[in-house]
Amino acid sequence: MKVNSLLSEKNTPRWIIFSIDVFICIASLMLAYQLRFNFRVPTIEIDRWIVAIPSVLCIRIISFAISRIYAGIIRYTSTRDALRIFYTITAGSFAIGLLNFVALRIIGFYLVPFSILVIDYFTSVFCITAFRILVKALYQELKNPSSGKRDVIIYGAGVSGVITKRTIDRDAGIKYNVIAFLDDDKKKTGKRLEGVSIYNTEDDLEDLLRSNSVAHVIISIQNISPQRKQAIIEKVLNHDAKILNVPPVNNWINGELSFKQIKKVKIEDLLERDPIKLDTESIRKALSGKVILITGGAGSIGSELVRQIIPFKPSRLIILDQAESALYDMELEVAEHFSLKNFETVIGDITKEERMRRVFDAFRPQIVFHAAAYKHVPVMENNPSEAILTNVYGTKVLADLSNEFGVEKFVMVSTDKAVNPTSIMGATKRIAEIYCQSLGKISPTKFVTTEDLLPSRIPR
Fold this sequence. Notes:
Number of strands: 13
Structural class: alpha/beta
Order of helices and strands: HHHHHEHEEEHEHEEHEHEHEHEHHEHE
Distance between the termini: 70 Å
Shape: elongated
Strand order of the largest sheet: 3-4-2-1-5-6-7
Helix content: 40-55%
């Protein structure tokens, strides 16, 4: 059989694998006889082959047919396949041993001497398994030559690290080569895992990054503190390597890890603290069944507010923006990807008091998220009048109307640039903050200001 046949993307016909396995068993039996008799097999044993070889061959064929070890895809041979081979050969050899006792009673001699049967057992297991491993190695090398691979280091020499290494190895489309394992346990240092050396994180990480062209460091430890992860990330980033993260086991597809699931670190992984967990029940009580107005609802912050608020099932959601195209895209997204039916998209300029009054009068919002604003510092430096008109006067219009129409809560999205402002944009946002805070002292409406409101910081 041609090697190319085994290495092609098309699966090799099962009968070819079956034939090779049977041939290996015959060759293994012949080798066992030669080894047992020091390559001088007695004539009496050769004469018995006419009965012994067909009998052994019949048992091996039956065991192969039952276990179907030939049905696996050779290039993806795994530990499970090796175990199936082991069990199949063991069962077959045990059956041949029983047949020996039957033959002794019927024809007066063993079909296969037990010493030869033992040798044949070990050589068959080894050769059939080695054949599959050799084909797998050839396939991976020809499909994905090691000379073109990029170096990868896996942080974590435990079970998750081993699975990560095997995931990279079995995916022929991945151009990576694992050159080292890292682990905090110094007892593992100097040992080898899956043929790869284990190094100590504190002592060896910097040297490995300096002496190799490392493309990625993959964090495969499942339970790692944010502080420890932060320390590893900082070291790696100093050497222009990228950090990837293995997801938790419960996120693996059908309990198996895929390389596509190994992603870049998330921003919360860089926090020097555990991420804040939201009290979703409190948020649900605050938003569920309420009429909510979001100004700037098609912008970067406003649109994300829309996405995050919808799951809490407001009775009605009004998305207001003056950008027609962006608002239309937002309307399509909400209609296609969310189950919320009771929502309205409104085109309007927050500086137009009469237009805003009609919006408040028509929809009677209970909660207002005010995200409409000009936010780009350099642009506002060149257009200060527009910054004042929208960021200050527009906020005043909305705040006054919220007070007039009895809005329960008015949330203004501000910015860190409003703290000791040094720019036009920052100054206008600070003025808007002061106005809302002052109005909140005399109004039944609760006025809240927050810096660049993110999904994880929706106020309650």
